Amino acid sequence: MGKKIEKIGVITSGGDAPGMNAAIRAVVRACAYYNIECVGAYRGYQGLIEGDFKILSPRHVSNIINRGGTILKSARSSEFRTKEGRAKAYKEIKKAEIDALVLIGGDGTFTGGMIFNEEYHFPCIGIPGTIDNDIYGTNFTIGYDTALNTVVDVIDKIRDTASSHNRLFFVEVMGRDAGFIALNAGVGAGAEEILIPEEDLGLERLLEALKRSKRSGKSSSIVVVSEGDKIGKNVFELADYVEENLPQYEVRVSVLGHMQRGGSPSCFDRVLATRLGVKAVELLLDGQTNLMVGLLNNKVETTELDHAVKGKHHINKELLRVSDIMSI
Amino acid sequence: MGKKIEKIGVITSGGDAPGMNAAIRAVVRACAYYNIECVGAYRGYQGLIEGDFKILSPRHVSNIINRGGTILKSARSSEFRTKEGRAKAYKEIKKAEIDALVLIGGDGTFTGGMIFNEEYHFPCIGIPGTIDNDIYGTNFTIGYDTALNTVVDVIDKIRDTASSHNRLFFVEVMGRDAGFIALNAGVGAGAEEILIPEEDLGLERLLEALKRSKRSGKSSSIVVVSEGDKIGKNVFELADYVEENLPQYEVRVSVLGHMQRGGSPSCFDRVLATRLGVKAVELLLDGQTNLMVGLLNNKVETTELDHAVKGKHHINKELLRVSDIMSI
Amino acid sequence: MGKKIEKIGVITSGGDAPGMNAAIRAVVRACAYYNIECVGAYRGYQGLIEGDFKILSPRHVSNIINRGGTILKSARSSEFRTKEGRAKAYKEIKKAEIDALVLIGGDGTFTGGMIFNEEYHFPCIGIPGTIDNDIYGTNFTIGYDTALNTVVDVIDKIRDTASSHNRLFFVEVMGRDAGFIALNAGVGAGAEEILIPEEDLGLERLLEALKRSKRSGKSSSIVVVSEGDKIGKNVFELADYVEENLPQYEVRVSVLGHMQRGGSPSCFDRVLATRLGVKAVELLLDGQTNLMVGLLNNKVETTELDHAVKGKHHINKELLRVSDIMSI
Amino acid sequence: MGKKIEKIGVITSGGDAPGMNAAIRAVVRACAYYNIECVGAYRGYQGLIEGDFKILSPRHVSNIINRGGTILKSARSSEFRTKEGRAKAYKEIKKAEIDALVLIGGDGTFTGGMIFNEEYHFPCIGIPGTIDNDIYGTNFTIGYDTALNTVVDVIDKIRDTASSHNRLFFVEVMGRDAGFIALNAGVGAGAEEILIPEEDLGLERLLEALKRSKRSGKSSSIVVVSEGDKIGKNVFELADYVEENLPQYEVRVSVLGHMQRGGSPSCFDRVLATRLGVKAVELLLDGQTNLMVGLLNNKVETTELDHAVKGKHHINKELLRVSDIMSI
């Protein structure tokens, strides 16, 4: 059995997401509750490599539950992808007497953790923090719900001007490989069409749908497009294509971009982050490793990090169907 | 088996909740998709009794997905609780050639529907719309997620002034019989203590907790209290009691009240309402009745209306424990 | 002296702005208060040409004070720029027995009104409704304050992710000819640099400022750029240029776009729109014409439409200076 | 002439207001710009008495422009009202080598500053920070605009539920001696009636107005009541009175309370606070004292502290009239 855990390190890594601070806070407070020390490393794995540590007490995480971003900063560390980088990180971790790690991030973060664990048998628990919701082993990742609300709120604003001017808007949202944000925010915003990487609608069907929408008397329309849509055109080309083929439409494009990563987290994300943060600490204290904590069927459950990385979180087919029915 | 469904009626009844409009929209559009008519009745069961109907086409529900309240208005009808009232309602329903009903509301709404169904064998499907989340058969009721965000947003503001002045705030939130809002919003807002009807903390333990909090260096505190807390004192008496016994605290009270029922629904509530609205129509078309649609483990499922009314949606014990850990 | 005013027409024209609905509501209610009729025309001048009118009573404008966009829709009418178009409009206006017009919009809208007045001696009062704040004769245009809050709110979100990742963001905001939004929202969002059309900072000075900012220990930065910045590069070229010359920066671009036109108006914009709407009606009843109502030094004042169009609303030099001091 | 200013102290005192942090940030950055030191004292005058100081560099005020509350905390110090208290404060100030003070707060804060200046000839400049807008010498106090948006946003939510249930709501807002918030937020929220301390409407007229409103077909109504309304009844008594006399109304009460003091400041408040903060520092450097900086006619102007305290900021009569017209 492993050594008794007396000091836990925590990092945030990869793209930042609202609720990461709530997760850090939960890890820190759970450590205090169980009378162990907590240390944060800055800028993800890079902070481990550089020994850029800070002892975190409950006082340090006061009033951060409502803040976007991450007080520990985040980064993608190319150095940690090398054997030498990981060796440096291990040396710094031992020097700091850290016994286990909580890794808050996405696929890349977890892959790093698994390799590190393989090489050094160092206890690691992952917490899924990313707005993309593309992680197997949890129904919801931390930050996803907030991003949906941000997108829906912006599309509500765009709809004001779209319907005042009888325009067609293409709105690009985040999700390079997964259409979770596009599909859910699209349904939530009442979008007429939703284009996602998981489903190749085809340009012809899009034109048909827009023609039908015009015929049915709709004077304005919103099409939500996922960054990673497979239709083979980016959102500007798509807009040009539609404007050429449907001259009755005045088309505009809006790329929402990085604002989707920020903002004060929703209640759902704060509670999720708090539950997962506590569980991560408890698992480490219980001698577990190489697991990701997640929410499955409203219960906190664990998944092997390996499965979390290799598994595929599939889009909800029922919601796709509902989206079609709504666009009548 | 019953007659073919060609016209569906829809009502919103009981306390209003954000997302009711999204549910109405989904019912209307699903009807259009399946080529049947949809009729809305105003002010819940009272509109059925008075024959206060309006044909609803997809055009009527444009741009309502983002609006709080209910375009069909809501009310509690004492007349519908009488045999005569229900007879009048049945007569009006037959006159309007309505074949089935979608009932959006809570316990009281569903009870009315069951009695009506028993007396007239009239197909009824319920959709849980209430901010209280106190319905058995669904993990989430429509409006609950939005109410949580509203509460958390307000407590974030209160915390600004609480921590500027080193004060203790008692914040009363809705939930007469169920502490869902208090517990989840309390955890989400980082409240120091949470008082809910399901758990009698006891005044002594509250004082102890607040003393400990002061000793640990916290300069301000938020205590979230559910309307229906069983501690035997209302929120003002509670505040007085604490101020008398802990003179080191300057105490303030805030009763959030009806604002919790309003506002633009969150993405979660809009998507939930849309999915449940579609399913309700499809169940009626499939010849089903006396069911409530709900979200269980992220799938749309059905529960007998009878069970929905009699069953008890229990508070999450794990979250209670997490809340204790966080208040360290 | 002109004929007694018994029926007033109202249009919204040009780009839509939050608060236009509040202005329409104020015009309608003021008409009711003074016992005259009010008629709305759809899609700006185009609605006048097509006789696309609707009688507006106070009931029609219930619950619109809080909505973005314009219930009367807006458009730019090329037909109204022709003599024939205006003749058609006059014919329709006379047929509908409209005695005077309230024109809600910007420069283009007012120019149209002046020409129409010149040709037909038809009473017209203008209300400045545009997010750009580029109208002479008013300190604030309707929609400007809301747009500032929208921009600041989005930049707050971007800053979360910028500071989590130590990045430099270029954020493009609206304002083709005027830097009001960029300057005020830039100061409000704590931007490190602000690039506006009124002031050619020069690329060299921008690089210098960013270098100094990096040296002073800032780990992330926001540069707000007005659409119409005179620096001779669009925001993407600007970002590339900086990334080439300051490789220590990881640069990202965000173009806010049309969302800036939408959303529920701020209290300031609602009150402003209400005051100006009432005054416009009272001026027409008083036999006035060819005036714009505006807010000067917190009082509702009038300016000749001619001056409003030809005059230049200058940027606040003191605020430019304050902005420099803040970017230390 | 006074001694050269080399170190400036800053406090926030009295009720906190959104934008106080933006003002602190502006003072700190302006000091850095002019190469002088800046010191913050905690909890207003009490911090001066206790020598509870902290050196503030630009780094300390990063990312606070968007936060409600005040990082320097606020309090009302009874000790500073005594000669002994002020003597202690002077001693601490001299010990810390502070040469001048920026006082952010309201009437009480400024009175304290004047007495202190009289006794010790110590340079003091006041910045009006309070949500109440009840200060002579400035059109707008810092925090007022944000409070208006908060109130309007909450009433928008209440209206959702009011109009769903055909109810009459009495909403109490802050403003013990001044009806600025009630009047402006009332107009902005489209309230049917507004009760403010400056104007005794009388109970009879209120009943008349509500009856007329009911007759004209309005199904729901909002009455905004200022805390300090002179009608002689508190908001609950008022509601009871109306319910007794107008049984056709179902009446509810909502007291907004302290949430009005919190929240992220609006762009307007951030820009205002920034401008006033810079000016305060420049005035001190210029050898001035006993002045309040304010915004008059969109320019930063100064008023003798004495006048600011004794003068009366009157409610806008035109807006009262507009409010009557709107309630038709």
UniProtKB/TrEMBL annotation, chains A, B, C, D:
<feature type="binding site" description="in other chain">
    <location>
        <position position="227"/>
    </location>
    <ligand>
        <name>substrate</name>
    </ligand>
</feature>
<dbReference type="InterPro" id="IPR035966">
    <property type="entry name" value="PKF_sf"/>
</dbReference>
<comment type="subunit">
    <text>Homotetramer.</text>
</comment>
<dbReference type="GO" id="GO:0005524">
    <property type="term" value="F:ATP binding"/>
</dbReference>
<keyword id="KW-0963">Cytoplasm</keyword>
<feature type="binding site" description="in other chain">
    <location>
        <begin position="258"/>
        <end position="261"/>
    </location>
    <ligand>
        <name>substrate</name>
    </ligand>
</feature>
<keyword id="KW-0067">ATP-binding</keyword>
<comment type="similarity">
    <text>Belongs to the phosphofructokinase type A (PFKA) family. ATP-dependent PFK group I subfamily. Prokaryotic clade 'B1' sub-subfamily.</text>
</comment>
<feature type="binding site" description="in other chain">
    <location>
        <position position="159"/>
    </location>
    <ligand>
        <name>ADP</name>
    </ligand>
</feature>
<comment type="function">
    <text>Catalyzes the phosphorylation of D-fructose 6-phosphate to fructose 1,6-bisphosphate by ATP, the first committing step of glycolysis.</text>
</comment>
<dbReference type="GO" id="GO:0042802">
    <property type="term" value="F:identical protein binding"/>
</dbReference>
<dbReference type="GO" id="GO:0003872">
    <property type="term" value="F:6-phosphofructokinase activity"/>
</dbReference>
<keyword id="KW-0021">Allosteric enzyme</keyword>
<dbReference type="Pfam" id="PF00365">
    <property type="entry name" value="PFK"/>
</dbReference>
<dbReference type="InterPro" id="IPR012003">
    <property type="entry name" value="ATP_PFK_prok-type"/>
</dbReference>
<keyword id="KW-0418">Kinase</keyword>
<feature type="binding site">
    <location>
        <position position="252"/>
    </location>
    <ligand>
        <name>substrate</name>
    </ligand>
</feature>
<feature type="active site" description="Proton acceptor">
    <location>
        <position position="132"/>
    </location>
</feature>
<keyword id="KW-0808">Transferase</keyword>
<dbReference type="GO" id="GO:0006002">
    <property type="term" value="P:fructose 6-phosphate metabolic process"/>
</dbReference>
<keyword id="KW-0324">Glycolysis</keyword>
<dbReference type="InterPro" id="IPR000023">
    <property type="entry name" value="Phosphofructokinase_dom"/>
</dbReference>
<dbReference type="InterPro" id="IPR022953">
    <property type="entry name" value="ATP_PFK"/>
</dbReference>
<keyword id="KW-0547">Nucleotide-binding</keyword>
<feature type="binding site">
    <location>
        <begin position="25"/>
        <end position="29"/>
    </location>
    <ligand>
        <name>ADP</name>
    </ligand>
</feature>
<dbReference type="GO" id="GO:0046872">
    <property type="term" value="F:metal ion binding"/>
</dbReference>
<keyword id="KW-0460">Magnesium</keyword>
<comment type="pathway">
    <text>Carbohydrate degradation; glycolysis; D-glyceraldehyde 3-phosphate and glycerone phosphate from D-glucose: step 3/4.</text>
</comment>
<feature type="binding site" description="in other chain">
    <location>
        <begin position="130"/>
        <end position="132"/>
    </location>
    <ligand>
        <name>substrate</name>
    </ligand>
</feature>
<feature type="binding site">
    <location>
        <position position="15"/>
    </location>
    <ligand>
        <name>ATP</name>
    </ligand>
</feature>
<dbReference type="InterPro" id="IPR015912">
    <property type="entry name" value="Phosphofructokinase_CS"/>
</dbReference>
<feature type="binding site" description="in other chain">
    <location>
        <begin position="174"/>
        <end position="176"/>
    </location>
    <ligand>
        <name>substrate</name>
    </ligand>
</feature>
<dbReference type="GO" id="GO:0070095">
    <property type="term" value="F:fructose-6-phosphate binding"/>
</dbReference>
<feature type="binding site">
    <location>
        <position position="167"/>
    </location>
    <ligand>
        <name>substrate</name>
    </ligand>
</feature>
<keyword id="KW-0479">Metal-binding</keyword>
<dbReference type="GO" id="GO:0005945">
    <property type="term" value="C:6-phosphofructokinase complex"/>
</dbReference>
<dbReference type="InterPro" id="IPR012828">
    <property type="entry name" value="PFKA_ATP_prok"/>
</dbReference>
<feature type="binding site" description="in other chain">
    <location>
        <begin position="190"/>
        <end position="192"/>
    </location>
    <ligand>
        <name>ADP</name>
    </ligand>
</feature>
<feature type="binding site">
    <location>
        <begin position="106"/>
        <end position="109"/>
    </location>
    <ligand>
        <name>ATP</name>
    </ligand>
</feature>
<dbReference type="GO" id="GO:0048029">
    <property type="term" value="F:monosaccharide binding"/>
</dbReference>
<feature type="domain" description="Phosphofructokinase">
    <location>
        <begin position="7"/>
        <end position="284"/>
    </location>
</feature>
<protein>
    <recommendedName>
        <fullName>ATP-dependent 6-phosphofructokinase</fullName>
        <ecNumber>2.7.1.11</ecNumber>
    </recommendedName>
</protein>
